[in-house]
Amino acid sequence: MVDNQYITIMLQSLQKKEKVLNSIIQINKRQKEELENPSLDPDDFDKTVEEKSELIEQLELLDNGFEKLYEKVREELQTNKELYKDEILKMQGSIRALTEKSMEIQAQEARNKQLMEQKFASVKKQVREIRSSQKVVNQYYKNMMKKGYVEPHFLDNKK
């Protein structure tokens, strides 16, 4: 019956993973809004990316823990399928839901990647425009400085 405790922990792990995936979905939505915002603050975007990174680390820990627990109870689950039928069905349902959420996250990530590429292209274009306008201003300034410059010359007052 020690295995039953492991199964309960595995089910809890799947529930925690679902919560983490829901959080990632929300963060992806927030990232999309930030990327669509023309006055995006890079610091806010960095915070969002850091939050998401922490959630991804949690996911990895949950996955590793689940796999270790499964290794401990695999044989028991396979030999006594009927005894653990309800728990196995719950786990399968949770895993299906997690797979759907993972697919949704992948789609969000693809859209956000495209938005980010557009944002970077826009920023690059702005930088190029600023550089070219600075060149024009510098050339204008240099030209104007030369116009006001009078070369020294000698005037002869004798007639």
How does this structure look, described?
This protein is rod-shaped. It has helices spanning 2-36, 42-79, 85-147. Helix 1 packs antiparallel against helix 2 and helix 1 (2-36) packs parallel to helix 3. The chain starts with a helix and ends in a 12-residue tail after the last helix. 86% of the residues lie in helices and 0% in strands. The mean pLDDT is 86. The chain has 159 residues and is mostly helical.
What is the topological layout?
Blueprint: H1 2-36, H2 42-79, H3 85-147
- Helix and strand composition category: mainly alpha
**Which residues sit in consecutive blocks of at least 5 with pLDDT less than 50?**
none
* Number of discrete helical segments: 3
SSE string: HHH
The N- to C-terminal Cα distance equals 126 Å
